[in-house]
Give the backbone structure.
Amino acid sequence: MEYQLLISLSIIHLVALASPGPDFALVVRLATQESRTAAVASALGIAVAILGHTLLSLTGVSLVIQSSEQLFLIVQLAGASYLAWMGIGAITAAWQHWRDPVTLEQSSNSKGITGYRGFLQGLYTNLLNPKALVFFITLFSTLITPTVSLGTKSMAALLLFLLSFIWFSFIAVVLSKPRVQLKMKKASPFINLVTGIIFVGVALTIISGIF
């Protein structure tokens, strides 16, 4: 087992996890506005997506996708479309809240996102993000050489999955506490707006890279 390699991977991955992005924005939004179950489920969905990216990168599938102009274009368009759709939905929710305060009250009292839906939102947000695909290809092509053992590769995949789930679950649990949700209630439109801007911004960045 190559422990130094695993430590390096862990540090780089933790820095990436802590960076603001669609995954972080999604968990914050669900944790402050929905049930804890939905927020933690989204954390699991993100972690499963990261595990998927890891396995695809380690097996070379991601590199094949990136190398194929048509396949990578499809991935980019699908990812940008989903992120833009999520972003516009969040911005629309923020606008509706500011326009009608009653809507904000009803929204804060309605835990409409189920755990399953939260899981899918987390899964799709990360899995359909081409930036995540490129990040893991770069990370593993740089650090994981052909001489690295299968045991180390397997441990790397498990480690990145666990770090992702623990990090986002921690955020979900802390921010979904009733007292925190109550304090964040008035900030819900702002959270939605910031979330929407992040999602749409990433989508536009992907699109601009295509054309």
